[in-house]
Amino acid sequence: MERVQAYLLKGVIAVTIFLGGVLNAQAEMKLFSLKNIHQNIVDDYKSVKHISREKLMAALQTKDKDNYLIFDVREKDEFEVSHIKDAKLLLPSTWKSSFMKKYGEQIKGKQIIFYCSVGVRSTKMANYLGQSLKEKGAKEIYNLEEGIFGWANQGAPLYKFDEDDKKAKAKLNDKKLSRIDVSKNETQIETNTTTKVHPYNNHWGQLINDESIRSYVP
Questions:
Q1: How far is Cα 45 from Cα 126, in angstroms, rounded to an integer?
Q2: Contact partners, residue 170, CB within 8 Å, separation at least 6
Q3: Is the pTM of this model over 0.85?
Q4: Residue 136 carries which DSSP code?
Q5: What is the pLDDT of residues 148-202, one digit of tens each?
Q6: CATH of domain 48-213
Q7: Could you point out which of 128, 176, 182, 213 has its C-alpha 20 to 30 Å from the C-alpha of 92?
Q8: How far apart are CA 151 and CA 158, in angstroms?
Q9: Cα separation values, 39 from 45, 119, 186, Å
């Protein structure tokens, strides 16, 4: 009898531990959300302003859309899968001097938007370049709230390079991008719409709601 009770007790303990693990995993997934990540970003970078995808989408459909300069702060392979239309690739490792040399004269009077996968890299870039952009006359500087993942989750339009355009493809592969240099955006000749978005990795990719649109290749 005592042996049976001991086995039953072990079983109860095992089930309790298992259920506890499941509940903890569920709790962690609730915390691991674009909303909570954005709030952490806001808390960590209090000087950076943020723009919602709804506000940016609306602005890009008006006659004032040319007053926006959009920078995609991700790696080249992420950008090639998809990006927001007319966004310029800006490697996360880009130096301030390189950025200002290429884009400094385009800044005055513009609304500057930075985005990445979820907002971490782009907020860091906005914070890093913020003062220099203001000195060049930027009207406002924003990070896109919840990044391109949030953008894709809402079904907002995404673009990629035209794979059939050999000229654009050749330019893309012309040479490797320097880790300290700004991307050559002259390659963005034509774009096609796409539903795909680079997930960064399997962990962060869970924040893209529709698993079918996660892709590591264009």
A1: 10
A2: none
A3: no
A4: T
A5: 999 999 999 999 987 555 454 555 555 444 444 444 444 444 468 999 999 999 9
A6: 3.40.250.10
A7: 213
A8: 9
A9: 10, 10, 35
Reference 158, options 194, 116, 119, 117; nearest CA is 194
For the record, the structure tokens of 22 come out as: 């499941």
Which H helix or E strand runs over 139? none
60-83 tens-digit pLDDT? 999 889 999 999 999 999 999 999
Sheet (strand 88-89) strand order:
49-51, 140-144, 111-115, 68-72, 88-89
The answer to whether 155 and 209 are in contact (CB under 8 A) is: no
Amino acid at 168: A
Token output for 124: 């860091």
Cα pseudo-dihedral 111, 117, 118, 124, rounded to 10: -60
- Nearest Cα to 142, choosing from 120, 119, 109, 114? 114
Kindly list the domain boundaries of the chain, sorted by start residue: 48-213
In three-state secondary structure terms, 111 is strand
Distance CA 52, CA 56 (A): 6
Strand, coil or helix: 114: strand
Query: 89 forms bridges with which residues in the sheet?
Result: 72
